[in-house]
Recover the amino acids of this structure.
């Protein structure tokens, strides 16, 4: 699982971008899969899947929600 920061959200276009905190790499995600409201600068955990021509961030979960579940 990766940790990142949402840097862009384009609800009308159906995608957004998350920047991985460790590497600084930016990944696209689909807004259709979001179950909670997200805003720019929200910290999230996410998984990556391999697509052509790159990787897609999936299963985004807000960092605060994940911490509450673990505690």
């Amino acid at each position: 699982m990766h940790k990142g920061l949402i840097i862009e959200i384009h609800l009308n276009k159906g995608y957004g971008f998350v920047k991985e905190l460790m590497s600084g790499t930016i990944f696209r995600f689909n807004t259709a899969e979001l179950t909670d409201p997200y805003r720019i600068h929200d910290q999230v955990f996410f998984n990556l899947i391999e697509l052509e021509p790159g990787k897609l961030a999936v299963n985004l979960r807000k960092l605060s929600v994940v911490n509450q579940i673990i505690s």
Residues 6 and 41 are 5 Å apart (CA to CA). Helices lie at 63-70. The chain has one domain: 2-70.
